[in-house]
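User: Hi! I'm working on a homework problem where we have to compare a predicted structure to a textbook description. Could you give me the structure for the chain below?
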Amino acid sequence: MKILWVKSDFLHPTTKGGHIRTLEMLRWLHRWHEVHYVAFDDYGKNAEGPRRSGEYATRAHAVHWGMSEKKSGRFFREVLTNLFSGDPIHLTRARSAALRRKLEEVMEAEKFDVLVCDFLTPCLNLPRPGDWVLFQHNVETMIWRRHAETAGSAPARWYYGLQAARLEEAERRFCRQMRHVVAVSDVDAKLFREEFGAERVTAIPTGVDVDYFTPAAGQSAAATETDLVFVGSMDWSPNEDGILWFVKEVLPLIRVERRGCRLRIVGRSPSEAIRRLAAEDGGIEVTGTVPDVRPYLWGSRASIVPLRIGGGTRLKIYESMAARVPVVSTAIGAEGLDVVDGENIRLADRAEEFAAGCVELLRDGRMHGALAEKGWRLVKERFSWEQVAREFEAILRR
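Assistant: Happy to help. Predicted structure tokens:
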């Protein structure tokens, strides 16, 4: 097949779950098919992205444009202008005449067997939207709804509610209009069908590179040992919200039973609020970007996923399992994953229950080992990236 794939950014540096999922699948698809990739190069600031695109694409087209950085002057102007628009800011921030021209140019010059739009973000720029397959890593409307539910002030709840309503209309429109929708879990696929009326929806599972994350025999992680670890991009607001909730509501309860419990927060671009956690508590470390997350997983007793907002599936859970680290997560954090509470993961939504799950894994070596082993076997036997890519390929062939 000859595939045209559009996304709002290139896949290196690989710092987000969406990057990892797309990169791993495209690497396999690129082995079997011809892939043409179109994305923003952030005004030339991201030289690594186009330079390394040969790892997953036959040809890459860099569009000299970029989305505004949050908290920049341009971003605030976009927010203000968007108040008078009917479209959600999640999409209008990525509206680009340059991207649309590039897609029209490439589609006129080449004949493609299938067109793939990666995430909802680029949708306003697509020529002939009805011809595209929409690859949905999240149900974006659900993320904004949960922002509205958990926002700390009335103005914030109003704004997130406004954007959620706009996004719901846009997501429904595109899910119905697109040739096919690919979801990353059965839970998301059901929402696309029942809430948005999408008729052509198929779910694929989340994958993991088990061999990459499995620790070698005698693997030393002494330099990175800690009790609890959280791994995730800290410039994604659901991650920030979850960690702030955990430190405020859960960690004090853990320390009643486990004095001196240490937490390490591993992920790029931590906000001032996240960095302040480490400044105010000697038992908390904030690393920022690290070259390799594996030693931080291998050196931890348990991995936490305290998300209260989100959609899609959490790659960090399967990566922790592949690293033989047991996981404590909220139900939202593990939403869409094929996991069983008490068998291969601990699930808890209330602060007291979440704390109890962490304490149990920190104290009980037998429970810790059993959960780690069953989690590892789950991902090893069922969720390789090659298998996921084959399922995606079958959708594209149909």
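For your comparison, note the following. The mean pLDDT is 93. The CA atoms of residues 234 and 240 lie 6 Å apart. Good luck with the assignment!
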